[in-house]
User: Fold this.
Amino acid sequence: MPATPPVASNLPFYSKIFGVGFVMGGAIEVLLVKSNYYQLIAKSEAKERAKKQARKSEGEQADEAAKAGK
Assistant:
């Protein structure tokens, strides 16, 4: 019966790749927080929501005015 060849484990390779990816992701998050990127996005989203709310309330006021005029 022939001996089976040893199987090479890919665990060290994948562990290194995971570690590098984890460190790079953390570095990007730190950069985004330090540059106030998330606050900028939050302000932008708030302005967009305010515009939508204003348009919605204007439309409701127009509907009420149209009903009152009938």
Remarks:
- The helical segments are 11-34, 37-69.
